[in-house]
């Protein structure tokens, strides 16, 4: 028995080569599957993505797609329905370096801070006007409606009116909606729905929110 042989007499080299062959076969199978799926997905239309759930990563994922769209020279519009006291990194970056991006924020704080229902509703309605402007303009390739779900959940805006505006947006326009909840009708309307699961969050271990990570 040489150094490279196991007690059963199969050399380590043979084992590696068997593993490589198995891997290649599995990858061939996987590639055939992926290729078949790519062939099947032939429809060209704007996609509505809903990013929901209790975990961290919804807004930042939305801005990740904004970055992708900008990379292709696409026209992007962003409306944020809830704003923290702190300016976010994405707001600072976009307003300073990408003034061509349409960026509107509701301007009021979180509803648990304002504690003013009628003021919030008026602000929501004013903000929705900005969303409507984007959702009726085919020159926008990508629209991000950040935290829109809360406007439905708190009944600040009419759900049927929101859904019909989203549905009737320009055919080629993609749309991202973020926020917890939002209801089953919004989920049904979306083409892609991802639920970010909260497994753990640093905040609950007493770690302070950090610029560049949390805002
Ligand atoms: P992000 O903006 O980081 O992508 P998000 O959009 O998924 O987060 P929101 O509910 O909009 O989450 O809350 C935004 C802020 O709250 C962020 O600072 C984020 O780190 C924090 N946060 C998100 N999820 C949780 C959680 N489960 N527990 C505590 N804080 C959270
Ligand atoms: Mg968010």
From TrEMBL:
Region (Disordered): 1-33
Keyword match Transferase: yes
UniProt biased composition (Basic and acidic residues): 1-19
Pfam family membership, one: CobA_CobO_BtuR
A single GO cellular-component term on record: cytoplasm
Transit peptide recorded as keyword: no
CDD domains according to UniProt: CobA_ACA
Annotated GO biological process: cobalamin biosynthetic process; porphyrin-containing compound biosynthetic process
EC number assigned by the record: 2.5.1.17
Pathway: Cofactor biosynthesis; adenosylcobalamin biosynthesis; adenosylcobalamin from cob(II)yrinate a,c-diamide: step 2/7
Annotated compartments: Cytoplasm
Keyword list, A-Z: ATP-binding, Cobalamin biosynthesis, Cytoplasm, Nucleotide-binding, Porphyrin biosynthesis, Transferase
Cited Gene3D superfamilies: P-loop containing nucleotide triphosphate hydrolases (3.40.50.300)
SUPFAM superfamilies: P-loop containing nucleoside triphosphate hydrolases (SSF52540)
GO molecular function, one term: corrinoid adenosyltransferase activity
Source organism superkingdom: Bacteria
EC class name: transferase
Catalytic reaction list: 2 cob(II)yrinate a,c diamide + reduced [electron-transfer flavoprotein] + 2 ATP = 2 adenosylcob(III)yrinate a,c-diamide + 2 triphosphate + oxidized [electron-transfer flavoprotein] + 3 H(+); 2 cob(II)alamin + reduced [electron-transfer flavoprotein] + 2 ATP = 2 adenosylcob(III)alamin + 2 triphosphate + oxidized [electron-transfer flavoprotein] + 3 H(+)
Known function: Required for both de novo synthesis of the corrin ring for the assimilation of exogenous corrinoids. Participates in the adenosylation of a variety of incomplete and complete corrinoids.
Family: Belongs to the Cob(I)alamin adenosyltransferase family.
Protein name per UniProt: Corrinoid adenosyltransferase
Species annotation: Marinibactrum halimedae
């Amino acid at each position: 028995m040489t150094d490279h042989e196991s007690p059963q007499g199969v050399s380590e080299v043979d084992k590696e080569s068997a593993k490589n062959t198995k891997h290649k076969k599995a990858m061939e199978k996987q590639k055939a599957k992926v290729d078949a799926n790519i062939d099947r997905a032939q429809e060209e239309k704007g996609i509505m993505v809903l990013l929901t759930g209790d975990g961290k990563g919804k807004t930042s994922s939305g801005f990740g797609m904004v970055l992708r769209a900008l990379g292709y020279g696409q026209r992007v519009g962003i409306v944020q329905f809830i704003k923290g006291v702190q300016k976010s990194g994405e707001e600072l970056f976009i307003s300073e370096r990408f003034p061509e991006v349409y960026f509107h924020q509701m301007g009021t704080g979180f509803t648990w801070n304002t504690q003013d229902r009628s003021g919030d509703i008026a602000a929501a309605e004013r903000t929705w006007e900005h969303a409507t402007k984007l959702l009726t303009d085919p020159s926008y390739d990508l629209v991000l409606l950040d935290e829109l779900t809360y406007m439905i959940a708190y009944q600040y805006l009419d759900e049927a009116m929101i859904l019909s505006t989203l549905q009737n947006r320009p055919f080629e326009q993609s749309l991202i909606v973020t926020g917890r909840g939002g209801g089953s009708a919004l989920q049904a309307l979306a083409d892609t729905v991802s639920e970010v699961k909260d497994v753990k969050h640093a905040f609950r271990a007493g770690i302070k929110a950090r610029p560049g990570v949390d805002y």
